[in-house]
Design goal:
heterodimer, A: 268 residues, MetI-like fold, 10 helices, B: alpha/beta, D-Maltodextrin-Binding Protein, domain 2, 2 domains, 3-stranded parallel sheet, 8 helices, 16% strand
């Protein structure tokens, strides 16, 4: 059998098994005893249309939270990663602080950081401490994701072969110059896919800020669901989040693919 | 390799067959449900656990709706105490239906799960849930056991505390608890210029008021008395809001189509007629505050 025939046969089988799988899945779900109730409560088109405009408006707050915290995270996480990779005994205390920070904020559930900061910081009653719950939501997300993203950067920095640094130093560059001109450019390029992966996580976690009272998309959907005792608004909110994350996820896949192709090309 | 799809197909078809079997079960259980609708004799009642009335409410169970000292798993108070308005009403209804006090069992039902589709773990849920026509499409409500007004709690000495009319409230930031009609009242009647904050729990809303993250908290009037007496010591009730449109009332929540509703409604109307509800309200609920115009 030719390679082309094998490929066509494979595609046919894939298509058939996909059709059979999803048909049977759909039939199994729609024939379940509770399906009419589930359809009415979760997939009610009237409720979907009625709740979507308000949820979409609230979703703008999620986008705002995401964009602002992302900008801070990119900078702060890089700084943290650089601090953790500082050589020599002099910087030991800084490295310990960096490790402690990353351990703490990766260990505590994000919702707890949000709750503790959002209700705790304003409770100090200091006049210069902002009261805005959205502000504290952004601070909490930035703190937590800086810890994650700094690990990503650090993996990138450590993936650059030590000979690169040694070569740069032997040319007379200082540690800082070598980091800036030789190591980081390579490191950052390598970690772009995992970096974007963390940002997909961040996009979803903006929904946690609603815990403080800010009306973002999930909170708005909760309000609608509680008013009508119908969960369809949750589905509407989910659709919005997915609509935002899918393009980013595909973009990440494309970057990974492009990176692999380039590396294979250089190897040949 | 070629055999695999056939095996998969057989497996999937058996799942489908199981699904169909399930739908016929539903039909038979539906008919038994309607057959039981006729009588309100204790033995004929449609109950989750026979011989036992299973009542649900959220935890913590807050005064003045629930009273007594807290007893695990309940926090703040204890629904089993018979103290507090909703606990007292539940035991009064239970008595009319023929249940002894020991035959009433309380379970924790978070507000969000009280209207989840599918079989319910409680016979009814009593948790200051306001009747709304849209909600009644998903669950059944009992008749009113309390006609409720919304009230505004503020912190003494803040700017909002000197407001005297609803029109003067527009520039402030308000908060309400998720799922309450308090939120609807803010949006539809106060119409403030700032987006109101909505909190998952009473505690979170109270924390925000103490922190001055919100200027005013809108809650039902009896809860406002508890908030100002216990939770926010420097808080005060600025006033209660006038009723707009149809008066709001709390109802117990039942699984849709549960025949128990009509029996509970019979019990409630007897309790209303003989003055029990009024005296329980007088005992547990304060309801006197100036009305904001």
């Amino acid at each position: 059998m030719t390679a082309g025939g094998e490929g066509r046969r494979g595609a046919t089988i894939a298509l058939l098994s996909t059709i059979v799988f999803f048909t049977v899945l759909a039939l199994a779900i729609t024939h379940a005893p509770g399906w009419p109730e589930v359809r009415q409560t979760f997939f009610n088109w009237q409720e979907f249309k009625a709740s979507m405009p308000e949820i979409a408006r609230a979703f703008l707050l999620n986008v705002k939270i995401f964009l602002i915290s992302e900008a801070f995270i990119l900078v702060l996480a890089l700084a943290l990663a650089v601090v953790r990779s500082l050589p020599g005994p002099v910087f030991f205390p800084l490295r310990v602080l960096g490790i402690a920070y990353a351990d703490f904020f990766r260990g505590v559930p994000t919702i707890l950081v949000i709750a503790l900061l959002g209700f705790g910081a304003p409770a100090l009653q200091l006049s210069w401490v902002p009261l805005s719950t959205t502000f504290w939501g952004i601070v909490a997300l930035t703190l937590v994701y800086t810890a994650y993203v700094s690990e990503v950067y650090r993996a990138g920095i450590e993936s650059v072969h030590p000979s690169q640094n040694a070569a740069a130093r032997s040319l007379g560059l200082s540690h800082w110059q070598s980091l800036q001109k030789v190591v980081l450019p390579q490191a950052v390029r390598r970690v772009i896919p995992p970096l974007l992966n963390d940002f997909i996580g961040l996009q979803k976690d903006t929904a946690l800020v609603g815990f403080l009272g800010s009306v973002e998309a999930f909170k708005q959907s909760q309000i609608d669901a509680a008013a009508t005792f119908n969960y369809t608004p949750f589905v509407a909110a989910a659709v919005l989040f997915v609509a935002l994350t899918i393009p980013l996820a595909r973009f990440t896949d494309w970057l990974v693919l492009r990176d692999r192709r380039r590396r294979q090309a250089t190897r040949v | 390799m070629r055999r695999v799809p056939a095996i998969v197909l057989v497996a999937l078809l058996s799942i489908l067959a199981a699904g169909c079997g399930g739908s016929s079960n539903k039909a038979s259980s539906g008919t038994t449900g309607t057959a039981a609708a006729a009588s309100c004799k204790k033995s004929d009642l449609n109950l989750v656990n026979s011989g036992q009335l299973t009542a649900g409410t959220d935890n913590p169970a807050f005064p003045p709706w629930f009273g007594g000292s807290e007893k695990a798993p309940w926090k703040v108070s204890d629904p089993n105490s018979g103290q507090g308005y909703e606990s007292a009403v539940t035991y009064a209804v239970a008595k009319k239906l023929g249940f002894a006090k020991s035959e009433v069992k309380w379970i924790v039902v978070p507000f969000n799960t009280s209207f989840a589709p599918g079989p319910k773990k409680f016979d009814f849920d009593i948790n200051q849930i306001s009747y709304k026509p849209a909600r009644a499409k998903a669950v059944d409500f009992s008749d009113s056991y309390y006609d409720v007004n919304q009230a505004l709690v503020v912190v003494k000495g803040t700017k909002i505390a000197s407001a005297t009319s609803i029109a003067a409230l527009k520039p402030y930031k308000f908060g309400a608890q998720l799922g309450t009609t308090s939120y609807d009242y803010i949006v539809n009647n106060i119409k403030p210029s700032k987006q109101p904050a909505v909190f998952d729990t009473n505690d979170a809303a109270v924390a925000a008021l103490k922190n001055k993250q919100i200027d005013g908290l809108v809650v039902d009037l009896p809860t406002a008395f508890y908030v100002t007496a216990v939770q926010v010591p420097n808080g005060k009730i600025l006033g209660q809001f006038p009723t707009v449109g149809t008066p709001e009332h709390f109802g117990m929540v039942f699984e849709k189509g549960n025949s128990l509703v009509s029996c509970v409604n019979d019990a409630l109307s007897q309790l209303r007629a003989d003055g029990t509800l009024a005296s329980l309200q007088a005992k547990w609920l304060q309801a006197d505050a100036p009305v904001l115009k």
